[in-house]
C-alpha cells in the first residue's frame, strides 16, 4: 500500500539559492538598499515583472502587506468602502481595516467564485475599490467584473496569492486589474517562507507604494522601470511624492529574494505538474456520488497546488464523519465552515463592524473541502489520496444515510 505523503512538505529550494545566500552572509549585505544597484530584491522585482508581463513590481514582506500598500497607494479616503468576496483569507479584510477602510462582503457561489448578481448590487453601494480574491486559485469571471468596475471607474486589486501561473483568456492573473498582489508564503507556488510582491503598470501607484513600503530619503532611486523606458514617468512620480507619505517599513530582505529568484525558472514546470495532479485527482473524486469538484470557467487555465471539492447530500454529522475518516487514514481535510476559528470562514472575522450574514457563502463553506496537492506528488501517491477520500465519503454518507431512513 502506498504511504500517504506529508502534503505540507514543500519542494527543496534550488541549490543556486544556497550559493546566493552564502555570498550574502559573507558580505553581510542583507538590506535591500545597501547596494548601489542590482541588490537581489531589485533584481527579483525586474525579473518578476518581466515574467508576469507588468511594467513595475515591488517586493514586500507579505501578500498582506502588498494588499495594504495597494489600498494606500490608491489614496482612498478614510472609511472608504472596499468590496471583497465573502470567501477569502482573513488577511484580506484585515488589510482593508488596516488601511482605514471598511470591508463590504459579497456572496460567493458553490463553485467558490463571486456571485455576480450580488457583486453588482453591492458595487453601487458607494464602493471606492474592489479586491477580487482568486481564492485557492479559483478565478471569478474577470471579464464581467472588469466591465462592471470599469463602467463605474472603480479600481480593481487582484489578490492573486494563490494564482501565480494562472491564466484568464490568455492574460496572467494579476495583470488584469489595476494592481496584482502575490504571495511567496510556504504553501504557494514559489516558497520563501514569507514574502509578497505587487505589480502594476501605473507609475504613480507604484511610486506611492515604494515610498510607503520604506524607501526613505532617496532610496526610491534604486527602483527602476522597464528596460528601455525613457519616459521619465517613474522618476517624476517619485519626485512628486517624496516626503509626502508615511513610511510603513514593509520591505523584503535580500535573503528572501535570494531564496525566491532561483525558483522563478521552476514556475512553468510547477504549474504544469500542479495542473496535471489536480485534474487527475479531480477525475477520480468526481466518480463518487458524494464528492463534486467544480469545473473551471471557460477562459481559466489554473495553476493549482491544492484541490477543493464539495460534499454532496451530507448533513453536518456525515460531514464530520467524512473528515474524521479521511484524517484517520492519513489525509487531512479542511472543511472551511466546520471550525470555530477557521480564518477563511467570514463569521470568524469578528473585527469587522456590523459583520453581515451571507447565507449562500455560509452554506457553501459548510461542505467545501480543501486538501493540499503539492506539485511533486507521483501518480501512486495521488491514487492513495483519492482512494482515501472516496472511501471516507462512501463510509460517512452510506451507513449514516441508511441509518436515518
TrEMBL record:
<feature type="modified residue" description="N6-(pyridoxal phosphate)lysine">
    <location>
        <position position="188"/>
    </location>
</feature>
<dbReference type="InterPro" id="IPR000653">
    <property type="entry name" value="DegT/StrS_aminotransferase"/>
</dbReference>
<dbReference type="InterPro" id="IPR015424">
    <property type="entry name" value="PyrdxlP-dep_Trfase"/>
</dbReference>
<dbReference type="InterPro" id="IPR015422">
    <property type="entry name" value="PyrdxlP-dep_Trfase_small"/>
</dbReference>
<dbReference type="GO" id="GO:0008483">
    <property type="term" value="F:transaminase activity"/>
</dbReference>
<dbReference type="GO" id="GO:0000271">
    <property type="term" value="P:polysaccharide biosynthetic process"/>
</dbReference>
<keyword id="KW-0808">Transferase</keyword>
<dbReference type="Pfam" id="PF01041">
    <property type="entry name" value="DegT_DnrJ_EryC1"/>
</dbReference>
<keyword id="KW-0663">Pyridoxal phosphate</keyword>
<protein>
    <submittedName>
        <fullName>Aminotransferase class I/II-fold pyridoxal phosphate-dependent enzyme</fullName>
    </submittedName>
</protein>
<keyword id="KW-0032">Aminotransferase</keyword>
<comment type="similarity">
    <text>Belongs to the DegT/DnrJ/EryC1 family.</text>
</comment>
<feature type="active site" description="Proton acceptor">
    <location>
        <position position="188"/>
    </location>
</feature>
<dbReference type="InterPro" id="IPR015421">
    <property type="entry name" value="PyrdxlP-dep_Trfase_major"/>
</dbReference>
<dbReference type="GO" id="GO:0030170">
    <property type="term" value="F:pyridoxal phosphate binding"/>
</dbReference>
Amino acid at each position: 500500500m502506498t504511504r500517504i505523503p506529508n502534503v505540507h512538505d514543500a519542494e527543496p529550494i534550488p541549490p543556486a539559492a544556497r550559493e546566493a545566500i552564502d555570498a550574502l552572509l559573507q558580505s553581510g549585505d542583507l538590506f535591500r538598499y545597501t547596494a548601489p544597484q542590482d541588490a537581489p530584491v531589485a533584481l527579483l522585482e525586474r525579473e518578476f515583472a518581466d515574467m508576469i508581463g507588468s511594467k513595475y513590481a515591488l517586493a514586500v514582506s507579505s501578500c498582506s502587506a502588498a494588499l495594504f500598500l495597494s489600498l494606500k497607494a490608491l489614496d482612498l479616503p478614510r472609511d472608504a468602502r472596499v468590496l471583497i468576496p465573502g470567501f477569502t483569507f482573513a488577511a484580506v479584510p484585515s488589510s482593508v481595516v488596516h488601511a482605514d477602510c471598511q470591508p463590504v462582503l459579497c456572496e460567493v457561489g458553490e463553485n467558490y467564485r463571486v456571485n455576480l448578481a450580488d457583486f453588482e448590487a453591492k458595487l453601487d453601494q458607494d464602493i471606492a475599490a474592489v479586491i477580487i480574491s482568486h481564492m485557492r486559485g479559483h478565478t471569478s469571471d474577470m471579464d464581467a467584473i472588469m466591465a462592471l468596475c470599469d463602467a463605474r471607474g472603480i479600481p480593481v486589486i487582484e489578490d492573486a496569492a494563490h494564482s501565480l501561473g494562472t491564466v484568464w483568456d490568455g492574460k496572467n492573473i494579476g495583470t488584469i486589474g489595476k494592481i496584482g498582489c502575490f504571495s511567496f508564503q510556504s504553501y504557494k507556488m514559489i516558497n520563501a517562507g514569507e514574502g509578497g510582491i505587487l505589480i502594476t503598470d501605473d507609475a504613480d501607484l507604484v511610486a506611492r507604494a515604494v515610498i510607503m513600503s520604506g524607501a526613505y530619503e532617496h532610496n526610491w532611486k534604486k527602483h527602476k522601470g522597464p528596460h528601455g523606458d525613457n519616459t521619465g514617468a517613474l522618476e517624476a512620480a517619485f519626485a512628486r511624492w517624496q516626503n509626502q507619505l508615511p513610511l510603513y517599513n514593509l520591505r523584503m530582505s535580500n535573503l528572501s529574494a535570494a531564496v525566491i529568484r532561483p525558483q522563478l525558472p521552476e514556475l512553468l514546470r510547477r504549474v504544469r505538474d500542479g495542473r496535471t495532479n489536480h485534474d487527475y485527482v479531480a477525475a477520480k473524486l468526481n466518480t463518487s456520488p458524494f464528492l463534486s469538484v467544480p469545473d473551471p470557467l471557460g477562459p481559466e487555465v489554473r495553476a493549482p497546488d491544492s484541490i477543493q471539492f464539495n460534499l454532496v447530500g451530507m448533513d453536518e454529522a456525515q460531514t464530520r464523519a467524512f473528515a474524521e475518516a479521511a484524517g484517520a487514514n492519513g489525509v487531512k481535510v479542511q472543511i472551511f465552515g466546520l471550525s470555530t476559528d477557521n480564518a477563511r470562514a467570514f463569521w470568524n472575522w469578528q473585527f469587522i463592524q456590523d459583520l453581515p450574514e451571507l447565507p449562500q457563502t455560509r452554506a457553501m463553506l459548510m461542505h467545501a473541502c480543501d486538501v493540499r496537492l503539492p506539485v511533486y506528488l507521483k501518480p501512486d501517491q495521488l491514487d492513495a489520496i483519492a482512494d482515501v477520500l472516496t472511501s471516507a465519503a462512501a463510509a460517512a454518507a452510506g451507513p449514516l444515510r441508511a441509518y436515518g431512513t
